């Protein structure tokens, strides 16, 4: 099978692989060109851009090796161009002119479909809308046994690293400090992913580090130069500051703190930092999921009685979040926990809806759902009734015995087709003594109580109403 490699990827001493404020005029961001100065003067770079001459040596050897035995490329949308959102037309064909330097098929990750573009010199740009796994599968097929190279940008490389798909990573660390931009390794444990340093070579312009998964060194293309490690020192790669060190640096006592309290709080702070990093690692894994299945044809009713398809609930967005709540026709009142969650969503849904669509689904008529919403003072949520029970049964909202369950789902629309992207599947996985909960839990009620000494409590649950306080 083709290896997935990242080659000639620039990184600063402080761990950034692109500067801030990237734009059409400054595609690498402020300070970003300094990361690639080692490559600009090489023979390989000059030849790629139609020039002659250039310098030989270590930098050129690594630059050339990045093209050896490569049968296909994968690029993030930003690496192809500065355009955001839907393609306005077909005029933009990349940064490189009529004859790009790839000369093999290139698969561009995007949320917006576009026809393939045939360029001079053998480069063909294909636009992939169904995620990193689909792009890799197509690239490997096109590469016919040769390597597939991920060209960037930073977010794309991170997605493939977090998915455990990268086999080899060549970093060129320039003697530059950016201070801000896109950090390459934040929240990524390369050791846990199985990488080891197989090469480290220093040139006057950069420190070249090759990280290989699962072996001391990776196989090379015939004729490609290979360099022995010239030093047993660890590679100069910026990593996250250990959580304990970071916690110790920022922990400061409040008035009259005891030494015991401050020590315990500092230890907890270190664990909270690790938790935050783990949450972000999981979020990146979630964002990198391939597309799920296409749902069957379901029908829904809106508040005007109009019948809609699931695709209609997206509005102008390409992503839809649905929450199925327990307020079916057999229930005298809505589920208190569902009510607590939706109550916490009614105001922020106005902000959420700037980026994605959000719909509340229930088995009761919309009129009944809206009446309850008005009683609670909700004004912004959009409610829909599921027509029949097929949707509820298929997406784990209704048991064979007729019991309802809440369900939070994410859907995406690609190439005019709806796909299931994510659902909370933690039901039944709670540890002994716990009630069902998310990871992280989306309900602010529980998040706030988890900050208190008593926590959620073992004998308390939200209610629809409480006695009036005196």
What can you tell me about this protein's structure?
- By secondary structure, this protein is an alpha/beta fold.
- The chain is built from 13 helices and 18 strands.
- The strands form three sheets. It has a nine-stranded mixed sheet with strand order 5-6-4-3-7-1-8-11-10, with helices on both faces.
- The longest helix has 29 residues.
- The protein has three domains: 210 residues, Dihydrofolate Reductase, subunit A (3-Layer(aba) Sandwich), CATH 3.40.430; 45 residues; 180 residues, 3-Layer(aba) Sandwich (Glutaredoxin), CATH 3.40.30.10.
List key phrases describing it.
about 475 residues; alpha/beta; Dihydrofolate Reductase, subunit A; 3 domains; nine-stranded mixed β-sheet; seven-stranded mixed β-sheet
Quick take:
The chain is α/β, with parallel strands linked by helices and 470 residues long. It has 13 helices and 18 strands.
Main beta-sheet strand count, sense and barrel state? 9 strands, mixed
- The general outline is globular
Overall pLDDT score? 88
Number of helices: 13
Please, what is the CATH homologous superfamily of the largest domain? Dihydrofolate Reductase, subunit A
CATH topology of the largest domain: Dihydrofolate Reductase, subunit A
Radius of gyration: 27 Å
Widest sheet: strand ordering? 5-6-4-3-7-1-8-11-10
The level 1 CATH classification of the largest domain is Alpha Beta
